[in-house]
Amino acid sequence: TQQAVLQQERLRSLGQMASGIAHDINNAILPAMLYTEGLLESEKGLSTSGRQQLEVVLRAIDDVAATVARMGEFYRQHGRQMPFAPLSLNRLAQQVGELTRARWSDMPQQRGLVVNLRTELEADLPDVSGVENEIREALINLVFNAVDAMPSGGDLVIRTRRLPPREGEGTDSVCIEVADTGVGMDEETRKRCLEPFFTTKGERGTGLGLAMIYGIAQRHHATIDIESEVGRGTTIGLRFAGCPRPVAAAAAPSQVAYRTAA
Ligand code: ADP
Predict the structure, then answer these.
(1) Whose CA is nearest to atom 16 of ligand 1?
(2) Where is the signal peptide (predicted)?
């Protein structure tokens, strides 16, 4: 559809802008990094406090380099093909609930100011084929948004369901959704929420969470379904094509390296 084309165009120009910025930053910090390292290695002529200061500088440069690298990862969507593998959305749902615990359980434990998270998982759910890290990242973002939408507490559900095949597909589809009982979105917000940089959170928001999810969904041929009502809550679902036949479950749960934002 036209909206999808527009959205892809926006993501593409955003990606170009990001890689341009990353390139400039890398060029600028490289000499700073080399000279600082050089100074630290030349034993002589440095006082202890001078050395400490340079170490602080070096660490700051390292942080910037890491941020730039992450930014690159984030937008390198079309270039590199990540390997798709069969994965269980039920398992991801459980992981994501755990990984985000600090965010939703970290509320004042007063009456009515608690976010209750539960999972409702359909038994015998077909696997889907995808990049596990990406889908996990998308779900984490959905949970964060849901928590943001419930400043005075509420219910958060991560739900999986098997649905009939989408048009042109031979296998049942599989949906994972995050539902909250939060503030909801008005019509304009619902229409625009996938746009990069669209946020209603002011300084606290980046407006990139759902844009990123949109990119991830596209790569997985997943459909995004958004239902929202002001004052009642929001449900955002991702619907994938199910794998044709059951695949033996992965041996061990993959290692998860994720830290929740402060
Ligand atoms: P950010 O969270 O930084 O604002 P997003 O792209 O994740 O960026 O979200 C864009 C906007 O969509 C949010 O600012 C908010 O207005 C709206 N939104 C997203 N998820 C929800 C939700 N679960 N409930 C209400 N509004 C939401």
Answers:
(1) 200
(2) none
